[in-house]
Known about the structure:
With 143 residues, the chain is an all-alpha fold.
Amino acid sequence: MNNGVYRAGFATTQQAYEDAFDQLFDALDTLEARLGRSRYLLGDRVTEADWRLFTTLVRFDAVYHGHFKTNLHRIEDYPNLSNYVRDLYQVAGVAETVSLWHIKQHYYVSQRTINPTQIVPKGGEPDFARAHDRDHVTLRAAG
């Protein structure tokens, strides 16, 4: 996932961008379907794979969607993915490690080849503290 976002964002030809874009959204579609059957990527327990995906998903709507031109859908447009990222964000101690202000500042200011003006957009910040529905996935899978 993370590699796909960067391949699209740093593409130097239209074809390279479109190939990376298509692969990225195919992967998001696959993850959306998987998370409809399983609370976490590999079952009913959080693993390192979930945290690695989380770091990409938590940045997606605020940065990658616009900055890297990966704008077919937002994570908020995927019911399972958006609930999943909120589920992980709401794990004790996690919210304190996420600063969308800092994330946006880093990407929009440091990557001058993509954003030469260094303007940081004001919007695009999902509410990760909003309720999620991931409990039902575990119950459905077990039942």
